[in-house]
Amino acid sequence: MSTAVVVGSGPNGLAAAVLLAREGVDVTVLEAAATIGGGTRTSELTPGLLHDHCSAIHPMTAGSPFLRELGLDRHGLRWRLPEIDCVHPLDSGEAGVLRRSVHETAEGLGAVDGPRWRRLFDPLADGFDALADGIMGPPVRVPRHPLLLARFGIPALLPATAVAGLWRTEAARALYGGVAAHAFRPLNRPATAAIGLSIVASGHRYGWVVAEGGSRAVTDALASLLTELGGRVETGVHVRSHTQLPSVDVVLFDTAPRAVADILGDRLPARVARAYRRYRHGPGAFKVDFAVEGGVPWTHEAARRAGTVHLGGTFEEVAEAERQVCAGRMPERPFVLVGQQYLADPSRSDGDVHPVWTYAHVPHGYAVDATEAIVGQIERFAPGFRDRVVGTSTRSPAQFEEYNPNFVGGDIVTGANTAPQLLLRPRLTLDPYSTGVPGMFICSAATPPGAGAHGMCGANAARSALRYLERGSGRRTASGHGPSGGCG
Q1: According to the lineage, what is the superkingdom (predicted)?
Q2: Of 206, 221, 260, 386, whose CB count within 10 A is highest?
């Protein structure tokens, strides 16, 4: 039987482990923290309430080609939908309202912008399962659905500002802009349209779902399936050097590229080490979890029923805030994401006190408390919010990195979404999951298709590892203790 070690138990590490175990590989996952999950952990950050630590809303997870085939409902994963997916309020009192249905969303955007929304997203949502196979797989391969991929890919390569130009109303432009801002990039840069298009399309297909009981349910279900398949997870094991690894056939790293370089040291080819150490990280996140009595008093009624609320004003205001953050400056009014997961999953609340999940986009490594900036943006669209807060828990960019070393400088998407890194992360090579060391692979969100609790980076890397095993090369060399191992 072939053997494998996966370093890191985030969604990608566990997805890689499950795929390998399903193919008969004996797999052990090593996790440095006391609990599994990476960015999908959930706990009582304020007394009696369940708060997601990072990843919270999961349209791309529900649409993951790999996770959908696993039957994770047998292992306790239950998706729950809010009444409304996302709302982007404006100072005028209007709002862009995103519903699961393309047609209902379009109806709310008016006689001009509604049909334009429908023309863009109807085919992408209807064909999302086929599209996901193309956009979430390895970048170098023959696409199965070239026409659909081209229909997505041509606008995806544009700046988000160009796609926003399709719409005339402030509400429609802001609605798309808030989703596009998940890229953590200036919205006038090439390919910044891609993330907004993919999230909206997946949401229209599967909804902006939350996991019942918290995002930890995603990785708990993966770990349960892994155990059923004969794999193991060991927590509290911090791998700092390849010499700590057991003698196995393959090793996969669910870590940032720099961590791979640190662990492998001079075993890593010099050109790969340079690429991993030059890998660019993007802006950070400053997170505040609130305990709110009675919920947030949004002035726009739809926001009171929405699982996600984007705060940033007009498209132009969001774009300017993102430009400043990426230039290393903190905007007076940052882009803020608000999660109201309890509306879909009431088990997270305690009576009339509810967990409200928020974070602001801030410069990389930002060291100033951004709580008041977040509260200010919420108060802007929900006057009286401050008076309802009965508890808070904050996490700065430095604390994000301490919580999960993959989040360098608070970069919760594990890498700047520059055009080159969107296409060629983490380095220029035909196999982005290969480290250049026989039997060793990287499977984190620093690899294609990038961030999200969808597990596709791990699944893609595991397939690379399986191809290596099928070739029968270098068995038991991964740790350096086999016949062709060592530091040379």
Answers
A1: Bacteria
A2: 260
